[in-house]
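Batch 3, record 17
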Amino acid sequence: MKLTLKIWRQKGPEEKGKIVTYPIDNIDGDMSFLEMMDVLNVELVKKGESPVAFDHDCREGICGSCSMYIDGEAHGPDRGVTTCQLHMRKFKDGDTIYIEPWRAKAFPIIKDLVVDRSSFDRIMNAGGYISVNTSGNTIDANATPIPKEDADKAFEAATCIGCGACVASCKNASAMLFVSAKVSQLALLPQGQVEAKDRVLKMVEAMDEEGFGNCTNTGACEVECPKGISLENIARMNREYLKAMVKK
Amino acid sequence: MPILNSKIPEGSIDKKWSNHKSKIRLVNPANKRLIDVIVVGSGLAGGAASASLAELGYNVKTFCFQDSPRRAHSIAAQGGINAAKNYQGDGDSVYRLFYDTIKGGDYRSREANVHRLAEVSANIIDQCVAQGVPFAREYGGLLDNRSFGGVLVSRTFYAKGQTGQQLLLGAYSAMSRQIGKGKIKMYSRHEMLDLVIVDGKARGIIARNLVTGEIQKHSAHAVVLGSGGYGNVFFLSTNAMGSNVTAAWKTHIKGAFFSNPCFTQIHPTCIPVSGDHQSKLTLMSESLRNDGRIWVPKNMEDVLAIREGKLKPTEISAENRDYYLERRYPSFGNLVPRDVASRAAKERCDAGYGVNKTGEAVYLDFASAIERYGKEKAQVLNIDNPSEEEILSLGRKVIETKYGNLFQMYYKIVDDDPYYTPMQIYPAVHYTMGGLWVDYNLMSTIPGCFVAGEANFSDHGANRLGASALMQGLADGYFVLPYTIGDYLADDIRTGPISTDLPEFEKTANEVSENISKLMNIKGSKPVDYFHKRLGKVMWNNVGMARNAEGLNAAIDEIKIIREEFYDDVRIPGDANELNPELEKALRVADLIDLGQLMAIDALNRSESCGGHFREESQTEEGEALRDDENFTYVSAWEYTGDPSKPNHHKEDLVYENIKLVQRSYK
Ligand SMILES: Cc1cc2nc3c(=O)[nH]c(=O)nc-3n(C[C@H](O)[C@H](O)[C@H](O)COP(=O)(O)OP(=O)(O)OC[C@H]3O[C@@H](n4cnc5c(N)ncnc54)[C@H](O)[C@@H]3O)c2cc1C
Ligand code: SF4
Ligand code: FES
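Prediction for the assembled complex:
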């Protein structure tokens, strides 16, 4: 395949960025999108140009590092996958592909396609946990049976990889899907009940402080989420939030 | 010359850990506030250690090179975590887990450490559930288990195919809590590039801020490495792209012995290589061997027809298939340990029976399981005379609930639907049992430098059993290290803060900066990956699944040449004082090259076969690994001498008091 890549290049956080065009040839349908980027970068290095910086690590859709906005969609045109799991067979010979970073006030650009998502960590630090010490002095794991359905739902919510695609694809740059996934996971489990109210208040407050936008229920996040995190989680978080506000 | 003292406590095996714990010195809470600990790594080992140490009251600084601690490579673990809970009532016990692990490791691990691991395993599950880790459950609400290779009980806890993710997010949440309280200071996008030693003790690290390129000095009273394994020395592996050996290697150069570097695990079920562009390999979890059957065609005509696309695997009848694991190992069948399964796949493919174009693939087939589950489900749902299609569709649903994400992953990569046609798989590098030598307290040969998780050598001998790395990482981090480090730090309550103005910090930081300038200034013609791929090829061909003296000697020579050319001709664009992924790679590959050489030297020294280390010169008539207990019942520990090709060899003799050494058999 022969392709034309239009990639956002930005040298540093304070510099101005722009789209730069790179033609690329000999791309095989079995390559992953990031392997295609590797090919480009090897060529750039050989020419003495600076390669395109992008975040990646596991390359199997689980670490949540990769974060490319491809042809106007977070993680590109395929559904239920991250950028690293996207394969070139989804494109045709002669295609022009636009590649940009996540864009959101709470995710400032560091370089090229690399953004700073530490705001997600700070929301977690505010309350995304159960306050239990790790000493192992706790009750037997089977002492509290948990209905399979609840456990499964908690698991579904817990599969969020913290990639930020939900924020990038939301016109308001809201982080509701991400935050609600963690709130839901813990709200669905008996262990999480004790701090449920406190948790939701603190996490929502941290989210607002980080400069994420409001949720206006457009649902774009659910469509672009590579892990299929459901909007139900947002509804559950809203209920949790209201309960907590009432009791406050 | 330092002498290896494993510091194994006295007493019977089942009392060692509890006696040791009760005698170990403690640091009182007020004094813990005066003590700093650096933890390198936020995976299961580093993340768990950071959280536990902070809870105990120490001031913790944690480093990782990813943009968030939640992205450490542990996140990718799929299949499960072992624990001797015996919830299934199938005869499991601490002793059985201990025994299975020693046997699985082909009798090359330390009894006392492995027993401790088995003892604390059950508690890990309690801890994780308390943190909100959503393990799979049965309809009654209790925890579910599955089986992994090399054992005859069901002791593996899991969260679909994302067990590592869920456990790591548990550890990450415990860390988040401490970060929120200010007890952990987190340094994401920072990479440790050297260890600082003051008066013979580990007192800090030199790290590079990966965003700004700044070289920083960080001090502490002790340094814990939880920096993961070195499988990426093979270029292609199931490890994350960033996994590397630099933290461990630099520590080795500073005096920590490196143990059994040649013990590498080649995992039998990975997606085969598809072309030269390949950047990494994807694991298909071992849990799939619970339900998948491995086979190749019996007849060569069928193999050829398949390769030409004239025949589909589903068209080959049962009698014309060779379920070679079931044939060779009737009692363990598809659930033999990894090293055995990998070699058996290689044997069939070497004999010409590989089922893809490159001849390096075998089938992992779910058809029987789909049918079996479908029938069971139809019965449960009271469907009379279900049609074949109904049965299969019900069966596929059951398979989906068990392995849905793995099947999806396979489909996206290969573009072939494993619900309808068998998966193609082949062995790939997956895990490294070798690592920095540690004593019973997890301390390396450098006082004050502790090593946990995959980065140390301690528990898995020459072959790790499935679902035991997660267990070890969390055991080290939550339950072992937080105790044992106290014994060491008890001497430091009056030391006061360690100043980064000490000349040792200055000197080490300068060395790091000089090394970076040296690399940047080579300005050669080839990108880093060129050298990494070449190294990987040599390692895979000569230090991979089968090794012999001639090949190992050739590897040692070839790696020397790669090393010279690397320092002569590598090209790193950009500047050192900016985000520069090529520079990061160059620094890592430089260390992987030296490590590769040590692996070959170690493999050459060990002329026996054991576990994942298969020396062609040492095999039974049936082609199984043949150990030489008389000459090799020891741990190799290599000391750096300044010349990476001439390390000093030390040995820790392994003493088996509780388990009798026998030839491993899974027949
Ligand atoms: C695909 C896959 C599936 C697996 N599935 C299973 C399974 O089902 N069950 C099982 O038991 N095991 C499994 N394993 C093995 C297991 O996941 C690993 O052995 C284990 O997670 C290692 O944990 P760790 O904490 O030691 O290291 P890692 O999780 O690798 O963490 C290393 C940490 O160190 C940091 N680091 C490294 N070097 C530096 C440096 N120089 N400076 C700063 N930070 C640094 C990294 O940023 C990272 O945070 C699997 C492995 C793979 C590859
Ligand atoms: S909710 Fe989905 S899109 Fe958002 S961070 Fe989690 S996985 Fe990514
Ligand atoms: S690189 Fe890990 S999710 Fe894409």
